[in-house]
Amino acid sequence: MSINYDAVYKELIQQLGESAVSNDPVRRFAWSTDASYFRIVPEIVVHADNLEQAKQTLAIARAHKVPVTFRAAGTSLSGQAIGEGILLILGHDGFRTIEISSDSNKITLGAAVIGADANAALKPLNKKIGPDPATLASAMVGGIVSNNASGMCCGTAQNSYQTIASAKLLFADGTELNTGCDKSKAAFTQSHGELLDSLTSLAKLTRSNDVLAQRIRKKYSIKNTTGYSINALVDFEDPFDLINHLIVGAEGTLAFVEEVTYHTVDEAKFKASAMAVFFNMVDAASAIPPIIGDSVAAAELLDWASIKAVTGKKGMPDWLNELPEGAAILLIESRANDAQTLESYTQDVIAKLAHIKTERPISFSSDANVYSKYWAMRSGLFPIIGGERPKGSSVIIEDVAFNVEHLAAAAADLTELFHKHGYPEGVIYGHALAGNFHFIITPTFASQADIERFQGFMQDVAEMVIHKYDGSMKAEHGTGRAVAPFVEMEWGADAYTLMKRIKHIFDPEGLLNPGVILNDDSTVHVKNIKPCPVVDDFVDKCIECGFCEKTCPTSALNFSPRQRIATLREIERLEQSGDKAAADKMRADAKYDVIDTCAACQLCTIACPVDNSMGQLVRKLRTPYISTTEQKVLDFQAKHFGAVNQVISTGFDVLGVIHKITGDGITNALMKTGRLLSKEVPYWNPDFPKGGKLPKPSPAKAGQETVVYFPACGGRTFGPTPKDPDNRTLPEVVVTLLERAGYNVITPEKTRDLCCGQMWESKGDFKNADAKRQELIDVVSKMSNGGKIPVLVDALSCTYRTLTGNPQVQITDLVEFMHDKLLDKLTINKKVNVALHLGCSARKMKLEPKMQAIADACSSQVLKPAGIDCCGYAGEKGLYKPEINARALRNIKKLIPVEIKEGYYANRMCEVGLTQHSGISYRHLAYLLEECSR
Questions:
Q1: Nearest to 761 by CA among 869, 876, 873, 871
Q2: Kindly report the CA angle at 105 between 104 and 109, in degrees rounded to 5?
Q3: What is the pTM of this model?
Q4: pLDDT > 90? residue 797
Q5: Helical residues (DSSP H) of 267-338, grouped into ranges
Q6: For residue 924, how many C-alpha atoms fall within 13 Å in the half-sphere facing its CB?
Q7: H or E stretch including 832?
Q8: Beta strands in 83-171 (DSSP E)
Q9: Could you give the C-alpha distances from 94 to 20, 113, 170, in angstroms and in order?
Q10: Helix 407-420 vs helix 448-462: angle between axes, to the nearest 10 degrees?
């Protein structure tokens, strides 16, 4: 039967509201993107922030027989987080419960909690969650449990299957179940006794089949996420235990996971690592069986192709290019809760490997500065290959598992298959301790022949893994669509029948994520493949992993960098296919989401494994949209910036007077009228500051060191807001502080003429941006007497951009100077408490520790509101696109306790936005240090 999606959409809007539901073609396309190599665009996207919204969505889906796919962070690799019909994505605010038991042995987590955030909450207790996927900094708990995701250390002993205590679930029929609550279980027994009986009978039947039961136990002695977790059927008898563990690895096909309670595991206090270099893969693999045990927490194997891929790259050891061809590396980590045990572990490992000849002696280091370089090889492998792959190619990571005695032979067979099918770039690495190999290839899917080549490769891989070694086609990435055709091949008919029965028991109508795990289409893994057209260097590097989404300030407004890039790729695909009309329409429809609202904060670059910069890309894309008239205005502003800067500053003084006389209503109406005449007129904000003033340094004193101080545009243009307790502007406070510390201060003669160029670059006007930056560099260089006098800039983003101009003199941000030079020269009286923002510019310049140290020196308690990574003000963009700032800071007010009345950062425009949405005064850290050192 055909589905009336217009009716479905209207019902969803009626129940959930317009902000939670979209059928917009551009947004549906962008939001469909996940980290897999598949593309399926849903008809409707729902962002759900609470269980009621999920229930209402399922109710409407049932009524219309619409398939529903659940999505957490979308970092999964096998195509399990995309689907037709309705795509239900966890919202940006809900499902984020974090509750730790009094004995710290359990933690309850909402489905949208990021794994690393759970561990951050547990860290003070020397605990962590068991699962440790490489995506832990981005992956959400709903996805981690639904994929039974694991990583380097958890193996099969501490994954979600082994550490889950209970779960809150929503079934396809709308019934809720909390497997950790007796009352909920009793109610479920009453309403769903038949389901429970069916599961109990299925488990009993499985256990009674000795051959099948033994096969299941054997298959799960190594990592395995192929198909459903049917080990539950032999491990448990209680029906609620069965539900608990069948949900693990079910990839959203059995129920919606609202919340999970994990048994926590100990986090070792002491660690040491060794890099064991072997002459060949056989020797490296033979080192695994003897070291399995308490002495080794992790062992990562890198083949010769992996070593070659990282050799000569930034941060990699120089001696890699001296290794003999065919060498292999085993990275070994030992962990313990005391130094003596750690020492015994490391000596035990060395003794157990003494019989194997190595290229260099095995030596453990407990110095993080040393062993972090070892692990940089492992963590650097994927971004190096992904970032340097040929333009237009995809990057595919598959993971398989073998019994450890087969690792060397399996690696040789995989390498042979790489060359047989034309993937000579293929590399092998992985969690050798668990018999788990990852391999990376970078195929092109430009033609049917390319797809058929990949199909042949995967078929050969399956034959080798399953029939030759009886291994796992999926070890930890989940089945998805990528290996759904091979589930029955791996498990056999009896086990596959069990899996089909499980699906029917939980989801008899087949509405939940259909086509994932179980699929009768033997070619589903080579259908709906994501195209990867060549677009631009920034676009082409992106691997669509989604690591950028956690920190992007516009993810909750519209798009993340991943979604912007996916949209740009689709526009280019349409262009290349000859459908120019469709490309032009999508480009126009996507402009607001892709170009206009990107904050260009570049936090995405910090999170990106291939160091991509959406900010730089968007600025580049803005250039063609600058009209002739707009360019003339930009040219005028650059040429006469001193006057323009003074007019803006005076204008805000005048605006403040008008507001004081007329109030919010009339002032807002005047601003709206002004915006009809020019888009340079900002939206009204009651917390707009007064105009700024330039400082008047005192006459120089003999015998004192001199500094050149450049007051950046923000601080000299925008003075105190109505909420600020100090009427002085930032430049006045900075001069007072520097002079108190014993410095003579000189400022540029024509300060208002000067700018780092950020305001032009953000609009895509690189010519004026770079010219203004060079003008500033030339002036301060001359004033510094060729670098003999320190140069200070008082806004982090301005310092950062000035430094990108490669000045020949040292330019230092005021924050760094305060930390390095002023703290020890001042007597400080601490405040009780303050809030501190560590924003995008601070992170780009890696100044968070110094900012924290300044705040700690000046206050007994320093609060950093959780999850506020970028304020979204984006220079002056917050004046004209206030919705970015509003969404980025939507939660800040409730994160700040009422007793905290002041906050600090180091960028005036950001502070204006922070003040507006937090309800407290945010100012530069210089105000805090100056006040506390009086």
A1: 876
A2: 80
A3: 0.94
A4: yes
A5: 281-286, 288-291, 304-310
A6: 32
A7: strand 831-836
A8: 86-90, 98-100, 106-110, 127-128, 164-170
A9: 12, 9, 15
A10: 160
